[in-house]
Write a structure and sequence with these properties.
- The complex is a heterodimer.
- Chain A has no helices and eleven strands.
- Chain A is mostly beta strands.
- In chain A, the strands form two sheets. In chain A, strands 2, 4, 5, 9, 10 and 11 form a six-stranded mixed β-sheet that branches. A five-stranded antiparallel β-sheet of chain A has the order 1-3-8-7-6, with no helix packed on it.
- In chain A, a hairpin with a 4-residue loop joins strand 7 and strand 8.
- By secondary structure, chain B is mostly beta strands.
- The chains are: A mainly beta, B mainly beta.
- Chains A and B meet through strand 5, strand 9 and strand 10 of A and strand 5 and strand 10 of B.
Chain lengths: 111, 114
């Protein structure tokens, strides 16, 4: 069946360091992936997306990498700041059009 | 802020009751999706509405139903509430049907079923 999973439930990093959050997906036919950030008491907020015809996409301080061979997705955050503390979800667009979310990784930024 | 507003923000109900949650989509958005997010989990797709019709449904029983109005706002109705229905219910709107690009989420309604 369809599933999206993250490797670690919690990631703790020092302020200023780079963060890498990983995600594995199971549907090799999926061609659209999104990373969301969810802060306490708020809904998911779009960070960056990537289509399967790309293997890397960069935004402001964030980079998403897609490895279709091993069905792996990662989110890299450069110079992590306290405001980056949140739960991060990867999501996969299924062939029926719905979004399938992973369980989330909690990013804790230590001052 | 995304412009997607949901009401109420919090709600407490008892098992067996019915509940209606409301969502106003972002200006210019004609597609609304509803998600259920249990504590510690990622959101799960309930259904989507486009042009006042259901346009896709996830693995949820028929007691979960919805409406979309001509102004594109939407309601989620849940009948015969069960304890496991306790969750954060998220509404998301977009201006394009058939794609999840530019999907904006509201802050959700926290439903507790006792």
């Amino acid at each position: 069946g369809e599933s999206v999973g993250l490797h670690l439930p919690t990631l703790s990093v020092q302020e200023g360091d780079n963060s890498i959050i990983n995600c594995a997906y199971s549907n090799s036919a999926s061609d659209y992936f999104i990373w969301y950030k969810q802060e306490s008491g708020k809904g998911p907020q779009f960070i960056i997306d990537i289509r399967s015809n790309m293997d890397k996409r960069q935004g402001q301080r964030v980079t998403v990498l897609l490895n279709k061979t091993v069905k792996h997705l990662s989110l890299q955050i450069a110079a992590t700041q306290p405001g980056d503390s949140a739960v991060y979800f990867c999501a996969e667009e299924s062939n029926t059009g719905k979004l399938i979310f992973g369980q989330g990784t909690t990013l804790q930024v230590k001052p | 802020e995304t412009g997607v507003t949901q009401s109420p923000t919090h709600l407490i109900k008892t098992r067996g009751q019915q509940v209606t949650l409301r969502c106003s989509s972002q200006s210019g958005h004609n597609t609304v999706s509803w998600y259920q997010q249990a504590l510690g989990q990622g959101p799960q797709f309930i259904f989507q509405y486009y042009r006042e019709e259901e346009n896709g449904r996830g693995n949820f029983p028929p007691r979960f139903s919805g409406l979309q109005f001509p102004n594109y706002s939407s309601e989620l109705n849940v009948n015969a509430l069960e304890l496991d229905d306790s969750a954060l219910y998220l509404c998301a709107s977009s201006s394009q049907v058939g794609t999840n690009e530019k999907l904006f989420f509201g802050s959700g309604t926290q439903l507790s079923v006792l």
